[in-house]
Amino acid sequence: EFGPAVRVVNSRSVAMGVGFVALSAARAAASGADLDTVEGVARSAVDRGRVFVVVHRLDNLRRSGRIRTAASWLGTALAVKPLLCLDVDGRLVLDQRIRTVGKAHAAMVDRVVDVVGDHQAAVAVHHVDNHDGADAIGAELTTRLPQIGSLTVSDMGPVLSVHVGAGAVGVVVQITDPATPPHDR
Predict the structure, then answer these.
(1) Whole-angstrom Cα distance, residue 59 to residue 77?
(2) Less Cβ around it within 10 Å: N or C end of the chain?
(3) 38 - beta bridge partners?
């Protein structure tokens, strides 16, 4: 019905990963940019985002079809805490297998630090009923990345919560230098 007045951009992300893309487009539109430019800004923001998630239990991922039953059983038996990430197509994939929650959170912080490098970035830390864990990760990121322009800590939201389960903590990174994609993309 709207015809060419509307452009669809796949953020290939979740949570604030979608939000960072929308904010980039909104800022461009508010500054008077035309529709083609706004779309270009949104697409550029997609390429500058990364998402990492640590889950505490694999049950929810198994029930939602994200992992197989055997993998869930084996991971639970071995007390594996997977560090997951969204790949370039927006699919949830395994980044690392880690034995404890503390080590998994530390590995996630290390991955975020690697991705940001020396660049300016905005960061959102999301959690499912784990505010203390999210606050600790946010504090560590603020210490290790003083160039972060903004850091937000918030609930993950109901749709994602169903998939990742209680205790999960995720970090969404948006490199704010427009011409700079994240490291290791």
Answers:
(1) 12
(2) N
(3) none
